[in-house]
Design brief:
The protein is an all-alpha fold. The chain has five helices and no strands. The protein is 60% helix and 0% strand. Helix 1 (24-44) runs antiparallel to helix 3 and helix 1 (24-44) packs across helix 4 (96-113).
């Protein structure tokens, strides 16, 4: 049972892994990454702490999902059309509890969809990115003393 308020969905089939792949991208493939991102947002957008942020800032879900899938393709070592940055997060007033909620749903999603090795790698990568983003946000909030 998920804690989100969205529709109760069945557990999807695991993503098929290419065991010969060296990078996460090569093992998951673009289709696997897209599926992972789609299932994640099907849950995260209804997470009580995150839903108001998504409702206010994501107006075309298909574009958001496609953009974030491109981000994860780049982060996992694959080709990508993602050319964004993390700057748009500066204006969302994110607090540590938002990161906890996002990462909890991400971890659950990875565990549901991926074999243990890939789930651990994707979760570890997300946690490192989340930590970097939180550090950037903290630096930005500090007053500049000069």
């Amino acid at each position: 049972m998920h804690s989100h308020g969205g529709p109760d969905t069945h557990v999807p089939e695991k993503i098929t892994i290419n065991p010969e792949g060296q990078t996460l991208y090569e093992r998951l493939g673009p289709e696997g990454i897209e599926r992972l991102v789609k299932w994640f947002y099907a849950k995260a957008r209804y997470e009580p702490l995150l839903e108001p942020i998504f409702t206010e800032h994501v107006h075309i879900w298909s574009e958001h999902i496609a953009n974030i899938a491109q981000f994860w393709m780049r982060m996992t070592g694959g080709p990508s059309e993602w050319n964004g940055g993390m700057g748009r997060h500066f204006f969302l007033n994110l607090a540590p509890e938002h990161f906890v909620a996002w990462l909890r749903v991400w971890d659950e999603n990875c565990q549901e969809l991926l074999p243990p090795r890939e789930a651990a790698e994707m979760s570890g990568l997300a946690h490192r990115i989340g930590e970097d983003l939180q550090n950037m946000l903290q630096r930005r909030r500090r007053p500049i003393i000069g």
